[in-house]
Design brief:
This protein has 222 residues and is mainly α.
């Protein structure tokens, strides 16, 4: 707890109600009625609060209301510009979370990094399998654990040493075999559902693949 408080700063925590009020003022004009606008502010406070469950009844109780009808009316029937509120919130997040020097939004970059890491792990599995194995025979979890253990070494070694480390990693990934599936007592019946969509066209049959090898596709800051 001390680490979290030191990171955020007590001043930042104390100013949280003011920040919520400023955010609400930013989107207030998007609501047609003042009552719905005020309920939206209390609804945001409830979502950001410490409720164990944030369903209609729990939020209504936190808002001081007798039932969830008001919260449900806000979400289902109240007149407000949802698209404009979304854009306002996105602009607010960019202003407060983006790096001032680079303009990079940390949350988006983190999610994109996970997607890139997943793709690179699959690419490494394909390269390790080569022509002798099917990539689907290799364990994704085993490959992930192996790369996770090797990354600290890659950060300490030079580029030439990392190339040798990567070759050894491919050999180790090729050993991460999945257990053989048990044979079925009855053969599986494959049913083909006929659809009205056109058959996959030629331009999608050979989708362009990554041109760089895995070792060159990722850069580790040392």
């Amino acid at each position: 707890m001390h680490g979290v408080a030191d990171t955020l700063g007590l001043t930042t925590i104390e100013r949280w109600p003011d920040a919520l009020a400023a955010l609400h003022a930013r989107i207030a004009h998007r609501f047609a009625r003042s009552k719905a606008c005020e309920r939206a502010k209390r609804y945001l406070a409830g979502l950001l609060g410490h409720l164990e469950r944030k369903n209609g009844w729990q939020l209504a109780e936190a808002l001081g209301e007798a039932g969830p009808q008001g919260v449900q009316r806000l979400l289902n029937a109240a007149v407000w510009d949802a698209d404009a509120v979304r854009d306002d919130l996105r602009a607010y997040v960019v202003e407060h979370l983006a790096d001032a020097a680079t303009g990079v939004l940390g949350v988006v970059q983190e999610i994109y990094g996970l997607l890139v890491a997943h793709h690179l792990l699959r690419a490494a599995m394909t390269q390790a399998a080569a022509a002798t194995l099917a990539p689907l025979c290799l364990s994704f979890v085993g490959t992930l654990r192996l790369i996770r253990d090797l990354l600290p070494l890659a950060q300490c070694w030079g580029k030439r040493a990392c190339q040798g480390l990567y070759r050894r990693a491919l050999l180790a990934i090729a050993c991460q075999l999945l257990p053989r599936r048990a044979e079925r007592s009855n053969p599986r019946v494959v049913k083909q559902q006929m659809a009205n969509f056109r058959v996959k066209t030629a331009q999608y049959r050979h989708w362009p693949q990554p041109t760089k090898p895995f070792v060159d596709a990722i850069v580790l800051p040392i």
